[in-house]
Amino acid sequence: MIKYGELTTKKANRNVFIRLLQENIERMLEGTPVSIQKDRVRMYIHCEEPVLEEVVSKLKKVFGIHGIVVCHKVNTIIEEIEEKSLELLKKDMYKTFKVETKRADKTFPISSMEFNQKMGSFLLKNTDKKVDVHNPDILLHIEIRREGTYLYTNEIRGLGGYPVGIQGKGLLMLSGGIDSPVAGYLALKRGVSIDCVYFESPPHTSIEAKNKVIALTRILNTYSFHIRLFIVPFTELQEAIYKYVPDSYIITIMRRMMYRITEQLARKNNEKVILNGESIGQVASQTLTSMQVINEVTHMPVIRPVACMDKLEIISIANKIGTYETSILPFEDCCTIFLPKHPVIHPDIKKVKQIEENFKFESLIEKAVENVEVLKSFTNVDLENYL
């Protein structure tokens, strides 16, 4: 049984969200023998015991699910409900219990409160356990619905959020560090499907750095579907920056070039926003002044999901989603190689524009965009093959 949580607040649009959630679940469970039914309140995924663990494991990575309940369906006949209740409670080690009935089918002649008392009395007589209505060791849920009665004792918390894709698509600037994969995950949680863009600068950046980003994309793709990775050849543009830009302004100018390229790729691929892992004040290019100057080159919305998180919060999420160990592998991206000793913290926009007039970056940007490498389909890729 799938519980929708936040999706139930969508009123007239609820069916649109639920329909997409079902489509995403069907994609996630493709090849697994299941059948799915849904209504405005619940979704039911019917499967046999041998694939139950696999189904639950996959559902834990589907955004839009508030709760996952392994439940048992019986006919709405009191004897069948009693028999299944007794069977469920005998499976667990506990001393106290409570029965909680939800009578969605109002044609059932016994009220929820009366049925709680009836079932509690039955279980007391047929077990050596006690009732505790305030803090029970085990809570037996009984949902009486028109199509049958559902019984369960445990609820597994889902990822919550919105179904991936309900908000359209964004382009994530994926650096290979800790923050940007977390930003991608948080965007997915709010229903934004993503593609990723990575700037490589061989021979200054290594093949291992590229493979690390491929591995991170693969991990993010387990929470989504069909993420593409755009790999931008950045060497010529980066070398021009080192040649014509004062040392302290290298990072500022380089980030402006990256934003220009990212916007072109986003518009070309019908993506609505740029996403990145920038966190306020974490490095020189992420002060408010730097963000303002760097952001000036794009007219697209830029979303920074981790902007107001501290590093420990970001690391906690990275560990939870499985990206941390890959992110900390010691392969530098093009933002960390040749990092100046004293990058400007509060860049001046007039000076930045004067510097950019010193070299013809437009043709280098055009060349980089024309030669982008596109990688697809990471779902079945083993991490070990890349690292």
Short description:
This protein has 387 residues and is an alpha/beta fold. It is built from 13 helices and 16 strands.
Care to describe what's here?
The chain is of the alpha/beta class and 387 residues long. The chain contains 13 helices and 16 strands. The protein has helices at residues 14-28, 52-59, 78-91, 112-126, 179-189, 207-221, 235-244, 250-268, 288-295, 311-321, 324-327, 349-356, 361-370; strands at 2-3, 35-38, 42-46, 67-68, 72-74, 96-103, 130-131, 138-145, 148-152, 156-157, 169-173, 193-200, 229-233, 273-275, 302-303, 373-375. Residues 379-387 have low confidence and may be disordered.
Report the portion of residues in β strands: 15-25%
Q: What is the helix content?
A: 25-40%
Main β-sheet, spatial strand arrangement: 15-14-11-12-13-16
Order of helices and strands: EHEEHEEHEHEEEEEHEHEHHEHEHHHHE
Spans of at least 5 consecutive residues with low confidence: 379-387
**Which overall shape is indicated by the principal axes computed on the Cα atoms?**
elongated
Quantity of strands, as a count: 16
Compute the CA-based radius of gyration: 27 Å
Q: Give the termini distance in whole angstroms.
A: 39 Å
Tell me about the largest β-sheet. Answer: 6 strands, mixed
Task: Please count the helical segments.
Answer: 13
Give the class from helix and strand content and strand pairing: alpha/beta
Write down the overall mean pLDDT: 91
